[in-house]
Amino acid sequence: MLGKHTRLFKILFVIIFIKVFILLVLLCVNSSDIHRVSRGRTSKFINDLLIDRRQEPNLEERLKLIREEMPSFPLEELLRRPRSVMPNQCGEAPDFMNIVYHNEYWQELQIQNTSFYFFGAYYDDRKTVPKTPLVRLLTMINLYGSEGEVDYPIVYCQLWYKNQVEPLIVEAIDHKIVWIWGGASRRFFPTLISCPLPKPKGGKAEVPEMVSLVADRCDRAKNLLRVVHELPEPSEVQQSKSARRFMVCVKAMDFPYTDMSWRVIEWLEVLRMLGVDKVVFYDAQMHPNMTRVINDYKTNEPHFVELRPMSLGRGEPHSPRHFHHYAMSADGFNRILNEMIPYNDCFYRNMYKYDYVGIFDIDEVIMPLHNVTNWNDLIELGYRVPDYERDSKGCSDWASFCFRNAYFPRYPDRPKVFKQLPSYYYMLQHVERTAEHCDRYSAAKCLHSTKYAVGLHNHFPLYRAKTGECEPKSIPIEYAQLQHYREPDNKTRLINPVTDDNIWRFQPQLQQRVYAKYEKLGFLPNITQMQEAEEQRILDDEQKLREAISLT
Ligand SMILES: *[C@@H]1O[C@H](CO)[C@@H](O)[C@H](O)[C@H]1NC(C)=O
Ligand SMILES: *[C@@H]1O[C@H](CO)[C@@H](O)[C@H](O)[C@H]1NC(C)=O
Ligand SMILES: *[C@@H]1O[C@H](CO)[C@@H](O)[C@H](O)[C@H]1NC(C)=O
Ligand SMILES: *[C@@H]1O[C@H](CO)[C@@H](O)[C@H](O)[C@H]1NC(C)=O
Ligand SMILES: *[C@@H]1O[C@H](CO)[C@@H](O)[C@H](O)[C@H]1NC(C)=O
Q: What is the DSSP letter of 87?
């Protein structure tokens, strides 16, 4: 009995074993089928993923990337510095582990209760500017007051030259606060500090590579900044003496939720037609579509559009973008004080490459009128015509040419002026402006001469050379105006607008160029698809109706 059962179990066991084996084999075959993709008849075995197979960048390439990420930190220069056999007598060179960073792009110096945050250092040897050559430091400091009123702690500059072990040490002079309308506690103020350099005895002065700021002459510094000295590339040299070069600087782009991408395209193309050679944006947080637009320009025309890193000087973290947007709006005064940093960084980086600099928002355009259609001719005209209300006889040059503001509001309830033109050409479609221009001070914008500007606010130069140039000239509105595509603060001004279609002088090129960008970047809806969807919707509705009728 027992033996019989055992044999039966054995047979049963073998049968189960065979079944399980067959099942496993089948499963294996099936699962290997999962890795096969069949297209038509051919069936290919895929052994590869779409991953990046490029080689890791070498150190040189990485240094270039780091330079773009942290423009003011001179890592390359630091790494190739000559090492001294003996430690420096005075002012030992900072090494990598000695640096104190602040909010990614800044470095700091604390002297008792005064904090200095450094954003950039720039070499200034302009002949038209007094006390040059010098290195200027763009700094945020927690001190405010007029000259002589504030006691700045003494600070020394240690200037590091190429292939020299010992620094040149000078006392920092000159604290120019790029803000003249009063201070407040807990804020940091944009301030330009100077490190005066010895005047060269004939020939050119040597340009220091790096600079550190210290409280005592011989301190080992905890900060190290690249001294920016960017001369024009051959492509950036002006073709002729009469062809001036123009640059536009834009503050940190803070548009996380509103899609202004399409407006930027039209704005950039207008500027290009007016003769602008370069537009520099600073990055805060942008809608992904806007990032796409800026990146497209940046990648394809790096000589035309630049996007630079930026963070708030007081230290509010900028990478969490929703937070950063909040931080920028939480304290308007803090935000405005910080706006002086991109303006002046942009100016000092580029002052040798361009003749005039404009500081604008993306809703502002300086528009020459009548037969003048570019900024070069506008400057030419600016020299000839009188100031609109002041005597400027006896002047041969001006720090800036300024243009009075005219609002071009949205007027959402007024009918389209150009019925045949799509609304997605914003400026071409918005050709109604407030009847009155603002006065010379309110919301005016200027083209600043790089020969004379020293400290720039978004409307006027707060500091200028004063070596022969006159104060900014306000150009009469017969010749040009600042077109400001926003709502006026004073709503009474909205009444009785006038038609002003000066921008149509740039047709049809402007429309073509904007359209080409819209098309390239996929802004234009697919009309065939929209029509098909519409037809389908009608068919569906009819079907529903028929069903409803048959039910009743
Ligand atoms: C630092 O302290 C000095 C002396 O107590 C004072 O005069 C100065 O205003 C303080 N500065 C700041 C930034 O708090
Ligand atoms: C515009 O017209 C004026 C007056 O006719 C003339 O003097 C000037 O040269 C013209 N400007 C340009 C840029 O054509
Ligand atoms: C607003 O604008 C109107 C029309 O230009 C002007 O008469 C009025 O004084 C302005 N109001 C203020 C508060 O500036
Ligand atoms: C703009 O953003 C919206 C929302 O994310 C998206 O649907 C659209 O495709 C974007 N447009 C372009 C041109 O990328
Ligand atoms: C638009 O959509 C249609 C239908 O889906 C498609 O055949 C066509 O290729 C699309 N056109 C473009 C430019 O994407």
A: P
180 and 80 within one domain:
yes
Q: What is the mean pLDDT of residues 387-406?
A: 93
What pLDDT, on the 0 to 100 scale, is given for residue 233? Answer: 83
Close Cβ partners of 406 (under 8 Å, ≥ 6 residues apart): 433, 434, 437, 438, 477, 481, 482, 483, 484, 500
If asked whether residues 441 and 492 sit together in one domain, one would say yes
Claim to verify: residue 216 and residue 240 sit in the same structural domain? no
pLDDT at site 128: 96
Residue of 244, 371, 375, 381 to test ligand 2 pocket, by largest number of atoms within 8 Å of CB: 371
Q: Is the Cβ atom of 371 under 6 angstroms away from ligand 2? A: yes
Q: Is residue 88 part of a domain?
A: yes
Whether ligand 3 lies within 6 angstroms of the CB of 552 is answered as no
> Same domain, yes or no, for 187 and 253?
no
CA of 524 to the centre of ligand 5 (A): 12
- Tally the domains of the chain: 3
- The two structure tokens encoding residue 107: 């470095």
The minimum-distance atom of ligand 1 relative to the CA of 112 is 1
pLDDT of 8 > 70? The answer is no
Give the per-residue pLDDT at 14: 67
Phi, psi of 322 (to 5 degrees): -65, -40
- Does residue 458 or residue 274 have the better pLDDT? 274
CB neighbours of 197 closer than 8 A, spacing ≥ 6?
133, 134, 135, 159, 168, 170, 205, 208
Domain coverage including residue 533: 527-552
* Residue 371 alpha carbon to ligand 2 centre in Å: 6
Give 417 Cα–ligand 4 centroid separation in angstroms.
27
Strand stretches in 364-488, DSSP E: 364-368, 400-403, 405-407, 432-433, 445-449, 453-456, 461-464, 473-475, 480-484
Rounded Cα distance, 446 and 469, in Å: 15
Contact 424, 518 (CB under 8 A): yes
Instruction: Write out residues with Cβ below 6 Å of ligand 4.
Output: 289, 292, 521-523
Residue 19 inside a domain? The answer is no
Contact 65, 57 (CB under 8 A): yes
Ligand 1 atom with minimal separation from the 113 CA: 1
Query: Do residue 243 and residue 170 come from a single domain?
Result: no
Starting from the CA of residue 374, give the closest ligand.
2
| Torsion (CA) 390, 391, 396, 402 in degrees, nearest 10 | 10
Are 343 and 214 found together in one domain? no
- CA dihedral 206→209→215→221, nearest 10 degrees, is -140
Q: How much is the pTM?
A: 0.88
